[in-house]
Amino acid sequence: MYASKKPKRITRVVLVVHAAAAAVVVVVVVVVVVVVVGIVAVVVVVVVAVVVVVLLLVVVVLVVVVVIIVIVAVVLVVVVFFIVVLVVVVVVVVVVIVVVVVVVIIIAYLCNFVVVVVGLIVVVVVLIVELVVAIVAVVALVAVVVVLSLYSLGLRKVLISDEVDQKCVEILQSNNVEVTKNTKLSKDELLQIIPEYDGLIVRSATKVTADVIEAGRNLKIIGRAGTGVDNIDAEAATRNGIIVMNTPGGNTLSAAEHTCTLIIALTRNLGSASMSMKEGKWDRKKFMGSELYGKTLAIIGLGRIGKEVALRMQAFGMTTIGFDPLVKPEECAEWNTEWLSLDDIWPRADYITVHTPLIPQTKHLLNDITFAKCKKGVRVVNCARGGIIEEAALLRALESGQCAGAGLDVFVEEPPKDYTLAKHPNVIATPHLGASTVEAQTRVAEDIALQFVDLVQGKSLFGAINAHALTNALSPDTQPWVQLGEKLGVLGSLLTKTLSLSNVEVLLYGSTLKNAGAFMTASVMVGYLRTTRADNGDLIPHAPNMVNAPVLSKQAGINPSTNGSDDGERAVVTSQFNLVNAPALAKQLGIVTAATYKGEAEDGIPSVTVALQGAGGEIFQLQGTVAGKSTVLLSVQGNDFSIPASLGGNTVVYRTVGPAQISDILGAAMKDGIQVSACSVSSLCKNQTFGIINAYSSAPNGLKNLSEVVSSAYACVL
Ligand SMILES: NC(=O)C1=CN([C@@H]2O[C@H](COP(=O)(O)OP(=O)(O)OC[C@H]3O[C@@H](n4cnc5c(N)ncnc54)[C@H](O)[C@@H]3O)[C@@H](O)[C@H]2O)C=CC1
Ligand SMILES: O=C(O)C(=O)COP(=O)(O)O
Which ligand minimizes its atom distance to the CA of 443? Predict the structure, then answer.
């Protein structure tokens, strides 16, 4: 009996020890898992936050287009953070469930194998649920970012006024853009409804003239689902800060194939022969044709379509020659096309096809004089733009036999009022069908919609034809520099009250700014032009101020809406100017802008110096840099800030003649109701100092007291 009881006691002790050990293991595992999950959660929050901030910076590029974006961007941060936190909470909860299940399994392992199997099934189910939750959360997050990004540019409503493939509507709608498609609008109707829209998409039928653009108060983008933008007044769009974009390449193949079709149809009289058959005639003699083999095809304009035409017609044994001022002879020799001057081309060509835009240099490229230089019986094709071949001269050449035939897809007036040319027996005419294929229309429709979406998300400027300053300004790295440029422009405008600005030179130091010339001059001009002064006793001839800005802006085709009031020394910053229109406006105002890359800075710190030059030759200089993501002022007129002045938020900039007591200045600022957060004072140089006061609040009652202790002071929001 005794011998049989002893082992049972030992078993109980062992079980107790096992249980204790298991408990310790469970506690340790739970603690470790909770700590690890906590750390992972924090890391995830930080990483996601950084990603979101980077995303936001990209969106903020487009802040230059509308001030509202700042508010929406803030909303974006809050909402995205909120969602990120939610996602993290969900993940943590699921992980804790998994941990509990694992613990149950460990305990079960000590007790019962069946429970282990059940535990495993539970774990698998929980993991699947976790995966689904994570996927849903990520999709929701991306959707929110996309929606808010679109809204941040204000691209809520887009009008499509020409026959554009439905794909375009679908893509925009799936990105939460409201789309109206109305292809039957008269000019008056378009003028009436255009103010409602943020974006407009057209083909070649809608004429987006200056009055349509002026009427489109909310327009931000005009998209051309196709190549030629001659139906859009791009200059008026630029003045109004509206981006114009096309879809280069989407219809190239269709236009090239149509051109080849016209060449082939011409040489075998297909049009007239077909017409005569329809009239019930069997006339084989009249329509004797000629081979293309061995003939010379001249291509004027060796761009996308010109090249594709060359490659296709070479398959017929044609020799291809061509001219294009922007294409090098070596380049087109690679695709077997000989580059020749126009004068060498005329006498050699059996066929001439034009593939250039209609610009002053190409208008009436083929006229009486050039037709006379061609071989008698030359055949011509125009699948580019009406007017490159002068229509009256072509009719004369057809009548005289100098031109044996013409294939025309485009006309000066579309639809033409006068059909004489189209009806000529030696003319094959089509009603602008070069791009009218299912494939080309699907491509251009998709392209323009995706380009819109990419643009508003700050991802790409592909297809934009009038936003050169923005080209390098989209990168998050360059954003602080764009902001610095604007802030230096604002300060420059405020501090050069009596300067009649004639030149702005931007000097760039440091390799990071090597390609920053365009957007830095543009951003300086944005800041300068946006800032008008309310203390405007003097009329400054060129620089825009409260008095002359409306007139100057009107001259430049801009209708500034004053979003501030005449309230003492406070600067009024309007949002009418952006990176798209500022360079054009500066030019119209007679302000010459230039940027010079000066190589590496001596101290290795990249910086920007803005030199504002008056009509009398006097120069006012400001220098700033970017520290981390912050913009700071380094010097004004050679007066260095030993501690760089932070530029951002409510700011007061002042100048003193001679040295001044900082305590007097701050005392006066406080008397004016300014809640000071920081103050930076420059060195004394040329008997003056400059100072920047950063404030929690703007100057509510003006700068009366401060103005008594300094020579000039201005409040602004940077
Ligand atoms: N009929 C239709 O449905 C279509 C017509 N087009 C038109 O076809 C034309 C060509 O389009 P792409 O090849 O895509 O354009 P692209 O821009 O690729 O090529 C145009 C070429 O013309 C050259 N050029 C400019 N000035 C010139 C001059 N004075 N002399 C000779 N060449 C000059 C340019 O350097 C460029 O290489 C455009 O006018 C476009 O609007 C395009 C698509 C469809
Ligand atoms: O893309 C072009 O330049 C075209 O001429 C095509 O015009 P469409 O879009 O067919 O009206």
Answer: 2
- Summarize pLDDT for 659-699 with one digit per residue, the tens: 888 889 999 999 888 889 999 999 998 899 999 999 988 77
**Residue 441: closest CA among 573, 270, 247, 657:** 247
Angle between helices 113-153 and 438-456 (to 10 degrees): 90
Confidence (pLDDT) at 327: 94
Q: What per-residue confidence (pLDDT) applies to 555? A: 45
pTM, two decimal places: 0.62
φ, ψ at 220 (rounded to 5°): -120, -30
Which segments of the chain have a pLDDT < 50? 1-7, 63-68, 70-71, 142-152, 533-575
Pocket test for ligand 1, best of 355, 414, 428, 441 (most atoms within 8 A of CB): 355
- The ligand with the least distance to the CA atom of 342 is 1
Residue among 164, 324, 410, 465 whose CB has most ligand 1 atoms within 8 A, to mutate: 324
Closest residue to atom 30 of ligand 1, CA basis: 324
Residue closest by Cα to atom 5 of ligand 2: 228
Choose the catalytic residue: 385, 530, 570, 655.
385
Q: Which helix (H) or strand (E) holds 387?
A: none
User: What is the ipTM metric for this complex?
Assistant: 0.99
3-state SS of 251-311?
Answer: CHHHHHHHHHHHHHHHHCCHHHHHHHHHCCCCCCCCCCCCCCCCCEEEEECCCHHHHHHHH
Specify whether the backbone of 621 is left (phi greater than 0), alpha (psi in -120 to 50) or beta. Answer: beta
Active site residue 178: no
Looking from the CA of residue 307, the nearest atom of ligand 1 is: 13
CA of 227, closest atom in ligand 2: 1
